[in-house]
User: Which sequence fits this backbone?
C-alpha cells in the first residue's frame, strides 16, 4: 500500500522535472588504476558511479551504494558499522578493491562501509558476481572498486566541496590536480563529522544518544612518465575515524571505536613491444581500538600489517588474443588484545585469457591457484563469454569458482580460533541480457550461486558462553537483477533516469525440531528497488532519489514476529551553478523526504527528515 | 474481513465466558492479579538489542509471552534482562545491557519504578535487612570497579555500594548475610564473598572453585556449582560442586567432576541435588559423597540448555536453540518423561516461581 503511494509520488516528481539539463560528458585521457577490471569483466555486470553521482550523495559508501545499486545494507544506525549483502551473500563475501588491491579487514574479512569515504575517489565501480580469480578472497557476491585515475595533460584544477546539515553534520572535501604530459598529481582531503543526535521520527521523544562521529582522510595519487615506455605511479591513503556507537537503550554503557588505516601502493609499468609488465608493491595497515566505556581509558585493540608484491605480465598475442599472468605474494602480521602476534603468508598464481573471436563475440577464461600454510589451497577458475546478437541486444554468460579465506579472528582468536578451518568456496553462474540504444540501456541478469563450508561462529556443544568458528552451513542463492538507465533530452531539458531492482533468494539449511528446512538468510530482503531522476536545465539541476528495501528476517529460523518491516526513503536536491567560466554550485538537499520511521537493523533507529546545504566549487 | 468478523465473534463469546467465570469464582481467596502463582521465564534477547522479554507460564499451563510490555504499554523490558528477584509484593527485573532494574508488582506486573542511577552492568539481586543487593560488573574488562549496589526498597534508589573483587554474579541471602559468587566478568573468577547486611561490609572472601555459577542453599549448606575454566582459558579445568557450611562460612566438602567436564546448572528439591552436563540431567542425594555415574535422563529435545530448575516434582529446561530465534521451555517429570513444551522468547535463561 505505502509502496504504491511512494510510486505515485515518484511519478509526480518525474512530471515536475520536465524542464531541465545535464553535465555533458567530456572525454578525458585517463589512465585507469585497474585495467584488468575492464579487460576481464566483459561478461559480467559492471556499474560505474562517476563523480557527479559521488558529489550529490552523502559521503559514506553505505549511502552511495544503498541509493544507486542493488546491494542491500545492514546498517547499525546512521554512520555506525555497516555490512553489505550482495546477491544474497554476507558482508564478508563482498570484496572492496582499492586501486586493484583487496582491502577487506583481515580481522573480520569484510569492510565496514561506513569507514570508507567516497569523495576521495574519481569513480567507484560495482561489479556483480564472482571475481576471486582477479581479486582474491571475498569476491563471491561481488566487488566494489575504489578508483583514483590519473590524467597526463596540462592541468591545474581545484575542487572545493563543503556541506552543512542537520545535527551539526559537516562535510568538507578539497581536491587538486596538477599535471602535465610528464607527471600527474592528485591530492584529496576529506573531513566528515556529525553530532548525529537526531530525534527519533514519530511520536517518540527519544533521541539518538552517543552517535557522534568524525573521520578524516587523505588520498594522494602521483604518476610520472619516466619515458614513453615506463610509468611510475604511487597511491597513498590515510583514514582516521572515531565513532561513538549509538545506544539502543537510554542507560546502556556508552562505547566508542577508533579506526586508523593506511594504504600505500607503488606501481611500475613498462611497455616492451607486445608485453606490458606491471610490478606493484603495497603496504596496508589496519588498526582499531574499542573502548567499552567512554568514561574509562580501558580499551581492546587489534592491528594487522600487510605487505603485497604483485607482478602482472600482459602479452598481446595479436589484436584479438590477450594473455596475462599474475603472481602475487602477500604476508601479514597481526596482533592485539586477542590475537597473539601471528603471521600469515599467501602466494597466488593466475593465468588470464581474453579472446575476441569475431567483432561480436568474445570470451575470457582464467585460472588461479592459491598457496598457503594456514588453510587449504583453493584452485579457482572463471569463464565468461559475450555475444552481440544485434546492434541493440547482447547476451553474456559467466561461470566461476570463488572463495573466502578464514579471517584472522577465525584462525587466530586467542584460544577459540580454529586452525583447521577450510576456506568457503562458491560455484556460480549467471546469464546477462543487455538492451541498448543511444540514450538507453537495460540489463537483466539471472544468477545461481552455491556456497559451501560457510564460516560461522556458533555456540559450543551444550550451550553456554563459548562460541567458536566452524565450517558449517551451505547456502544456495539465486535471483535476478535489473539495471536501467535512460537519458532523454528535450531541447535544453536533460534527464538522467536510473533504476535498479533485485529479487534475491538466499537460503541455508536449518535443523528445526529435527527437520532440515531451507530458510532465507537473515538480513537478505527478497526485494530491493532504487530509482533516481536527475534533471538539468541550463544552470539549474535537481534530482530525486528513491530507495525501497523489502522486509527481512532477523533470525535463522525466519521467525515472523521479529521481521524488520520494509521501508521507503526518498531524497531530493536542487543546485544552481552561478559560475560563468568555472562551475560554482550552491545546493540544497532534503533527506528522508517523507520522514520515514525505519530501522535497518533491530533496535537501530535512523533519522527522520533532515536537511543539507552545500557549495561545490571547481576552478 | 471474514477474519475480522470471526475475531469479533470470538472476543464477544469469550468475554461472556470471562464475565460468568469471575462471577462463579467468588471465593474468599481473592486473586491478587493475573500473574499470581505461575512461573516467569526471563528471555534475554540479544545483547545490544532491546528484544529481551518476560514470559508467564500459569499454573494451568498456558503461556503468555512479552507480559511486561503487554501490561505496561509503551514500556519495553530492554536489553538483556538476566534475573527476576521477588520481595514482598514486588518483582525486580535486572536488565543488564540497559543498566536498569524494572520494579513491578509481582501479581499484576504493573510497573512501580525503573531504577537507573548508580548501576553499571547489573547482574543479579538478593534481599536482606529490608534492602536489595545488586551485583554489578562495572566495565567487564576492569577488575577494579566491581561492586554490590545497595538498593533502598522504599525509594527505589541505590544508596550505597560495596566494593568487591571482579565479576560478582549470583547472589543469595541467608540469615542476614549475602553470598556472592565471583564468576569473573570477562575472565574467570573462583571465589565467594560474604557480606554482612547490617553493616554493608565484606565479612570474608575465599576460594571455592573455578567459575562458580550457581548458588543454592539447603538445610544450612550452600551448594555452589563451579563450571571449571573453559577451553579458551589459560588452563582448562574441570567443574566441581562445593559445599559451604553457612554457620561457619567455610568449605565443608567438594565433589570433583572427572576429566575436564563442565557442568551447567544446579538445583535442589526434596533433599536431592539436580545438575546438568550438556543436556544430560543428573540427580543424587544431597548428602552424597560421590557423583552419579549415569545420567537420570537426556533432554534430547533441547539443543542449547540455557536455563534449568526443579520444582514440585517437575524438571524445567529452557532451550535457547540458536540464541536468535524464540526459545523453548520444556517440562519433564522427575524420571524424564516430557510433559509439555512452550515457545517463549529469545534466549530463555531460567524459571522464576512466583509463590
Assistant:
Amino acid at each position: 500500500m505505502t509502496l504504491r503511494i511512494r510510486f505515485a509520488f515518484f511519478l509526480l516528481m518525474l512530471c515536475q522535472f520536465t524542464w531541465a539539463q545535464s553535465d555533458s560528458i567530456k572525454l578525458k585521457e585517463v589512465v585507469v588504476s585497474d585495467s584488468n577490471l575492464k579487460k576481464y569483466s566483459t561478461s559480467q555486470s559492471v556499474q560505474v558511479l562517476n563523480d557527479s553521482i559521488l558529489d550529490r550523495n552523502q559521503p559514506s559508501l553505505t549511502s552511495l551504494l544503498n541509493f544507486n545499486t542493488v546491494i542491500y545494507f545492514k546498517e547499525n544506525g546512521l554512520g555506525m558499522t555497516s555490512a553489505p549483502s550482495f546477491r544474497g551473500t554476507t558482508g564478508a563475501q563482498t570484496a572492496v578493491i582499492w586501486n586493484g588491491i583487496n582491502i577487506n579487514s583481515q580481522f573480520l574479512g569484510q569492510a565496514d562501509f561506513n569507514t570508507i569515504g567516497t569523495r576521495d575517489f574519481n569513480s567507484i565501480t560495482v561489479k556483480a558476481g564472482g571475481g576471486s580469480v582477479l581479486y582474491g578472497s571475498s569476491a563471491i557476491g561481488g566487488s566494489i572498486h575504489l578508483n583514483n585515475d590519473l590524467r597526463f595533460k596540462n592541468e591545474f584544477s581545484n575542487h572545493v566541496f563543503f556541506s552543512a546539515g542537520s545535527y551539526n553534520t559537516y562535510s568538507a572535501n578539497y581536491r587538486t590536480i596538477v599535471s602535465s604530459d610528464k607527471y600527474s598529481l592528485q591530492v584529496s582531503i576529506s573531513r566528515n563529522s556529525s553530532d548525529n543526535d537526531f530525534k527519533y521520527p514519530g511520536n517518540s521523544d527519544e533521541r539518538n544518544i552517543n552517535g557522534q562521529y568524525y573521520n578524516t582522510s587523505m588520498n594522494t595519487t602521483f604518476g610520472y612518465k619516466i619515458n614513453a615506455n615506463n610509468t611510475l605511479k604511487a597511491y597513498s591513503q590515510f583514514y582516521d575515524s572515531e565513532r561513538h556507537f549509538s545506544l539502543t537503550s537510554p542507560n546502556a554503557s556508552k562505547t566508542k571505536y577508533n579506526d586508523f588505516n593506511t594504504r600505500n601502493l607503488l606501481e611500475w609499468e613498462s611497455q616492451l613491444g607486445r608485453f606490458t609488465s606491471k610490478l606493484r608493491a603495497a603496504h596496508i595497515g589496519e588498526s582499531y581500538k574499542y573502548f567499552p566505556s567512554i568514561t574509562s581509558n580501558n580499551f581492546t585493540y587489534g592491528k594487522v600489517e600487510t605487505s603485497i608484491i604483485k607482478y602482472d605480465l600482459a602479452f598481446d598475442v595479436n589484436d584479438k588474443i590477450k594473455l596475462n599472468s599474475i603472481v602475487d605474494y602477500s604476508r601479514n602480521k597481526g596482533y592485539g588484545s586477542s590475537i597473539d602476534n601471528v603471521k600469515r603468508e599467501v602466494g597466488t598464481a593466475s593465468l588470464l585469457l581474453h579472446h575476441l573471436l569475431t567483432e561480436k563475440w568474445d570470451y575470457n577464461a582464467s585460472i588461479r591457484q592459491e598457496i598457503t600454510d594456514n588453510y587449504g589451497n583453493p584452485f579457482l577458475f572463471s569463464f565468461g563469454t559475450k555475444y552481440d546478437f544485434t546492434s541493440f541486444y547482447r547476451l553474456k554468460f559467466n561461470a566461476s569458482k570463488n572463495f573466502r579465506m578464514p579471517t584472522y579472528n577465525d584462525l587466530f582468536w586467542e584460544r577459540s580460533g580454529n586452525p583447521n578451518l577450510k576456506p568457503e568456496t562458491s560455484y556460480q553462474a549467471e546469464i546477462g541480457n543487455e538492451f541498448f540504444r543511444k540514450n538507453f540501456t537495460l540489463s537483466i541478469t539471472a544468477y545461481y550461486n552455491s556456497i559451501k563450508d560457510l564460516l560461522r561462529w556458533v555456540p559450543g556443544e551444550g550451550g553456554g558462553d563459548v562460541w567458536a568458528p566452524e565450517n558449517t552451513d551451505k547456502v544456495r542463492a539465486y535471483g535476478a537483477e535489473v539495471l536501467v538507465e535512460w537519458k532523454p533530452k528535450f531541447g535544453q531539458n536533460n534527464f538522467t533516469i536510473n533504476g535498479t531492482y533485485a529479487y534475491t533468494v538466499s537460503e541455508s539449511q536449518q535443523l528445526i525440531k529435527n527437520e532440515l528446512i531451507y530458510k532465507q538468510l537473515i538480513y537478505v530482503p527478497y526485494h530491493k528497488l532504487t530509482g533516481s531522476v536527475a534533471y538539468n536545465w541550463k544552470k539549474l539541476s535537481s534530482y530525486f532519489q528513491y530507495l525501497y528495501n523489502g522486509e527481512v528476517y532477523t533470525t535463522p529460523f525466519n521467525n515472523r514476529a521479529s521481521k524488520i518491516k520494509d521501508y521507503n526513503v526518498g531524497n531530493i536536491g536542487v543546485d544552481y551553478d552561478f559560475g560563468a567560466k568555472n562551475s560554482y554550485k550552491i545546493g540544497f538537499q532534503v533527506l528522508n523526504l517523507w520522514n520515514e520511521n525505519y530501522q535497518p537493523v533491530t533496535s537501530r533507529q535512523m533519522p527522520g527528515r533532515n536537511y543539507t546545504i552545500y557549495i561545490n566549487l571547481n576552478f | 474481513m471474514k477474519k475480522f468478523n470471526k475475531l469479533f465473534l470470538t472476543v464477544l463469546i469469550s468475554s461472556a465466558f470471562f464475565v460468568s467465570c469471575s462471577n462463579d469464582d467468588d471465593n474468599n481467596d481473592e486473586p491478587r492479579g493475573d500473574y499470581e502463582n505461575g512461573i516467569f521465564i526471563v528471555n534475554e534477547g540479544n545483547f545490544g538489542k532491546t528484544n529481551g522479554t518476560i514470559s508467564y507460564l500459569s499454573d494451568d499451563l498456558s503461556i503468555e509471552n512479552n507480559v511486561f510490555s503487554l501490561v505496561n504499554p509503551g514500556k519495553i523490558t530492554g536489553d538483556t534482562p538476566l534475573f527476576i528477584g521477588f520481595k514482598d509484593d514486588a518483582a525486580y527485573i535486572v536488565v543488564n545491557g540497559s543498566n536498569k532494574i524494572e520494579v513491578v508488582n509481582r501479581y499484576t506486573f504493573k510497573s512501580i519504578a525503573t531504577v537507573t542511577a548508580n548501576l553499571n552492568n547489573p547482574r543479579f539481586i538478593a534481599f536482606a535487612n529490608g534492602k536489595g543487593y545488586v551485583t554489578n560488573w562495572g566495565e567487564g574488562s576492569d577488575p577494579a570497579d566491581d561492586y554490590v549496589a545497595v538498593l533502598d526498597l522504599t525509594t527505589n534508589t541505590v544508596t550505597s555500594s560495596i566494593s568487591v573483587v571482579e565479576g560478582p554474579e549470583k547472589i543469595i541471602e541467608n540469615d542476614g548475610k549475602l553470598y556472592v559468587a565471583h564468576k569473573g566478568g570477562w575472565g574467570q573468577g573462583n571465589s565467594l564473598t560474604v557480606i554482612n547486611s547490617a553493616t554493608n561490609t565484606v565479612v570474608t572472601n575465599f576460594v571455592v572453585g573455578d567459575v562458580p555459577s550457581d548458588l543454592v542453599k539447603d538445610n544450612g549448606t550452600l551448594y555452589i556449582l563451579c563450571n571449571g575454566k573453559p577451553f579458551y582459558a589459560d588452563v582448562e579445568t574441570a567443574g566441581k560442586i562445593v559445599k559451604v557450611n553457612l554457620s561457619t562460612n567455610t568449605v565443608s566438602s567438594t565433589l570433583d567432576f572427572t576429566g575436564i567436564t563442565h557442568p551447567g546448572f544446579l538445583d535442589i528439591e526434596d533433599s536431592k541435588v539436580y545438575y546438568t552436563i550438556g543436556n544430560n540431567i543428573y540427580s543424587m542425594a544431597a548428602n552424597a559423597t560421590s557423583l552419579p555415574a549415569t545420567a537420570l535422563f537426556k533432554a534430547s529435545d533441547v539443543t542449547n540448555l540455557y536455563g534449568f530448575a526443579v520444582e514440585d516434582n517437575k524438571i524445567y529446561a529452557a532451550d535457547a536453540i540458536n540464541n536468535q530465534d524464540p526459545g523453548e521451555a520444556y517440562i519433564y517429570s522427575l524420571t524424564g518423561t516430557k510433559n509439555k513444551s512452550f515457545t517463549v522468547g529469545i534466549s530463555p535463561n531460567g524459571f522464576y516461581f512466583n509463590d
